[in-house]
């Protein structure tokens, strides 16, 4: 008997529903404050209640997971709330590659892997005095976009940075990261790489809803110009998008390049779900500004299957179910070590 | 034998398709001018043709509904086209709570119920001279957003109001309702409360497409500034959105607070589908500017099931089907009086 | 045995998956550079490899299609890459009406058919000196929106046209086509007309994501005004939308008017899938700026069925599957000539 475990947030519902549909036991590591929410869902077999997610490092919780032959599915909350060292020290087998999560969290390593994968990245701007066109200013880690801002020049950068510091949104010491702003159609490309089949699957794409930048679109310019508030990029939700079919070949190529680069520089490579995040410009050229080396919350829009997976599977297949299917297959053929770390 | 009846507009197709899928008889109260549209759908068993929806108050139509043991599903068109008194005088059992529809239609009662439910509401602005930041100006009732406008100050308010009056869009006598404008990511939260199970279900969320405010987003500022037209908020359609999972706990809490407040002040409470409508700001804090105390048209995007309902049901489940399921269950256990008024 | 063939782009995956689900043989005319992409999908039975799509005019390829009793499904790529004469000379039976594709490609014929169908069209502006409100400037043919631009007056028109010429995006000789810009909620209305059932079906609606005009919405006015770049309208993808139910009657009427007008002026009429493309203004009045006389890529969002088709079919039904279903029915009743040209 195998169990699937994950932290209670991000895409836990999708992951555990998929696991249950595949006949696996489901375990949720759940903050006490969220217990009421997750008790609503009957497909969650067992709750491990904690006050903070870092408690899963404790022996007693690790033991429960071990007794259940649990595989832990990592997601954005794991990365946001635990350090790379903590994640790497988890004894429970982690689906995919736990070592690559450090490459997602650290801006310098992230850029290195993206260059290695030949992903077209926005030009970094090393110093605020070098800002000569629209830039986006980001923070370290998977902060969900809160505190990100746009700036047109150094003066603008300083003004907005100080405004955000005075509001307590960013801290004075924080190293900010400046990129040329890539404008166009946002697309978050969701993949699954199966080391069992040695095949890459394109699952789907989504767009993020970020607040309050999204609200700008509905405020007439006349009113916008009277307002000095710095718009932010706090992710609130996701919506579906399908891509022009002529873009799919390059989508797959980018995914494969990422899988291959990961194999070379962070063994055993990019196994399981991941996401390449970027924007299509007016020439339909893609620029990638981020990747996620694990399931993304954007897959939640396809809780009952995605358009692209309906091409590959003759049944409704969410990303959570795909993960569970992979674990079942690996278990059945004694290859769990191939898909976990 | 039970029948489901509804007015031909808003979400009638979804409601009656769901009823047919549950094996119930379906009756549409249909304006003659729309007969051709609705005859296209074979799941509609019977049409009651009228020139105006208020005719359903007439004895002959009430009799047909009575003979069929019909339950009437109320929606936005019922509220838009009939007064609260008329709705309350309908003899046919109405699904949910017909008394609460008055609280939706009347701005003052609406605000009272929202405060009672501890929903965070935008600050009302009592007089146009008090406008000191961006506000939205609304009309009474469920007008679908037509004639709503934004204003930055009293001068702006007067200019736009007069422009809309001169265009015949609003009338001189009409009382307008001014709220501080909440900017960010719009989310219309769709719920179903079952008094049979005494459980609240979160069905899904949608975003509204409103004209012509949505078109603004595609007009460069340079051109916007040359244009004096007042953008409007006429609802044209809806699109799906899923929320960051960490927001769900608060979503359920808001829904439960609304259900409990309704139980206290408008018996028998908020039974069946309802919607809390608002916006997430840059801190992911929700502000609610409206509620609908019945099924909303935004559920039409999930005609074959929503992402969140696929967590609760192991079959495709639309809101229309959910309603029919509740009626069937109530009928089978002799509890129809518990879910109708 | 009947086969379905199509060109490898646009909506080929949806079309062939639908055909396979209906038990038909599937053939893809595939550019060699895209072979790797399409080999990933096991529902494609046979690939005809070409260097350029015009090769399907060659006898050897026509023979293969003939031997397989293939019906060719036309889509946007066929129109974009071949002339009307070339398309009309194809020997393989083409689903729908190949003669109407010329009416889609040619602006003058297109307008004529739209007027004949009584579609409300935006006012054409015959000369750039006549621009007195916001206009959109378009190119001939199905260019996917690249090189389209907005202009507020003649000076603006000249400036932007010259900028695009100097960037090599449009050519100096190219005839541009100027229309009054219709602002509001974009909606691409997808239909299927069955000459076998003599019935029009409304399949669904979508919105297009165009770059980089879509990106404007996320750039504050202050920054937009500092930027001189001309936004473009290159289609990147599509998202789902459902319409207010009170709009559906007019949607069907527009579709039927289009079908009838097509019957009158371009025999055998508008059979199979088509799309009426336009925008709803603040009075919910629709203005149509284009039509597509064949399947549109926006149907790809409904790869596993659309909300509106779930009202008509008790099974997941994509547009690709609907086409295959029609061909199977025609074949089984010896009416293939009724649905192909």
Automatic annotation (TrEMBL), chains A, B, C:
Please give the superkingdom of this protein's source. Archaea
Question: Which key words tag this protein in UniProt?
Answer: ATP-binding, Ligase, Magnesium, Manganese, Metal-binding, Nucleotide-binding, Purine biosynthesis
Which pathway does the protein contribute to? Answer: Purine metabolism; IMP biosynthesis via de novo pathway; 5-formamido-1-(5-phospho-D-ribosyl)imidazole-4-carboxamide from 5-amino-1-(5-phospho-D-ribosyl)imidazole-4-carboxamide (formate route): step 1/1
Residues binding ATP are 210
Q: Please give the Pfam families that the UniProt record associates with this protein.
A: DUF1246 (PF06849), DUF1297 (PF06973)
Which co-factor is required? Mn(2+); Mg(2+)
The EC number(s) this enzyme carries:
6.3.4.23
Domain annotation IMP biosynthesis enzyme PurP C-terminal: ranges: 156-341
Catalytic activity of the protein: 5-amino-1-(5-phospho-beta-D-ribosyl)imidazole-4-carboxamide + formate + ATP = 5-formamido-1-(5-phospho-D-ribosyl)imidazole-4-carboxamide + ADP + phosphate
- Cite the IMP biosynthesis enzyme PurP N-terminal domain residue spans from the record: 4-124
For 5-amino-1-(5-phospho-beta-D-ribosyl)imidazole-4-carboxamide, which residues are the binding ones?
Answer: 10, 77, 238
Could you tell me which InterPro entries the record lists for this protein?
Answer: ATP_grasp_subdomain_1 (IPR013815), IMP_biosynth_PurP (IPR023656), IMP_biosynth_PurP_C (IPR009720), IMP_biosynth_PurP_N (IPR010672), PreATP-grasp_dom_sf (IPR016185)
Alphabetically, which GO biological process terms does the record hold?
'de novo' IMP biosynthetic process
Keyword Cytoplasm appears in the UniProt entry: no
Q: Which GO terms describe its molecular function?
A: ATP binding; ligase activity, forming carbon-nitrogen bonds; magnesium ion binding
Q: What class of enzyme is it?
A: ligase
Keyword Phosphoprotein belongs to the record: no
What exactly does this protein do? Catalyzes the ATP- and formate-dependent formylation of 5-aminoimidazole-4-carboxamide-1-beta-d-ribofuranosyl 5'-monophosphate (AICAR) to 5-formaminoimidazole-4-carboxamide-1-beta-d-ribofuranosyl 5'-monophosphate (FAICAR) in the absence of folates.
| Family, similarity comment | Belongs to the phosphohexose mutase family.
From the Swiss-Prot or TrEMBL record, give the protein name: 5-formaminoimidazole-4-carboxamide-1-(beta)-D-ribofuranosyl 5'-monophosphate synthetase
- What is the organism of origin for this protein? Nitrosarchaeum koreense MY1
């Amino acid at each position: 008997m195998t169990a699937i475990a994950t932290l209670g947030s991000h895409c836990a519902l999708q992951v555990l529903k998929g696991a249950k549909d595949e006949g696996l036991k489901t375990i949720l590591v759940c903050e006490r404050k969220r217990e009421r929410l997750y008790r609503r869902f009957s497909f969650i077999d067992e709750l491990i209640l904690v006050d903070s997610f870092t408690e899963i490092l404790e022996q007693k919780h690790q033991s429960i997971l071990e007794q259940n032959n649990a595989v832990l599915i990592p997601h954005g909350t794991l990365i946001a709330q635990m350090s790379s060292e903590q994640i790497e020290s988890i004894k429970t087998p982690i689906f995919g590659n736990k070592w690559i999560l450090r490459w997602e969290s650290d801006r310098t390593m992230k850029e290195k892997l993206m260059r290695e994968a030949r992903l077209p990245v926005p030009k970094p701007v090393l110093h605020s005095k070098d800002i000569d066109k629209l830039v986006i200013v980001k923070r370290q880690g998977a902060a969900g976009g809160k505190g990100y801002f746009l700036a047109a020049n150094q003066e603008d950068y300083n003004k907005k940075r100080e405004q955000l510091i005075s509001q307590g949104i960013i801290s004075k010491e924080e190293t900010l990261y400046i990129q040329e702003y890539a404008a166009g159609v946002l697309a978050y490309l969701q993949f699954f790489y199966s080391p069992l089949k040695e095949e890459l699957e394109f699952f789907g794409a989504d767009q993020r809803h970020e607040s309050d930048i999204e609200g700008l679109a509905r405020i007439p310019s006349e009113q916008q110009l009277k307002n000095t508030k710095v718009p932010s990029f706090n992710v609130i939700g996701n919506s579906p998008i399908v891509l022009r079919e002529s873009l799919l070949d390059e989508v797959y190529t980018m995914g494969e390049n990422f899988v291959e680069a990961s194999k070379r520089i962070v063994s055993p490579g990019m196994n399981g779900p991941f996401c390449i995040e970027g924007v299509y410009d007016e020439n339909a050229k893609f620029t990638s500004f981020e990747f996620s080396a694990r399931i993304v919350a954007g897959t939640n829009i396809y809780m009952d299957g995605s358009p692209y997976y309906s091409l590959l599977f003759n049944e409704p297949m969410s990303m959570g179910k795909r993960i569970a299917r992979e674990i079942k297959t690996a278990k059945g053929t004694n290859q769990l070590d191939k898909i976990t770390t």
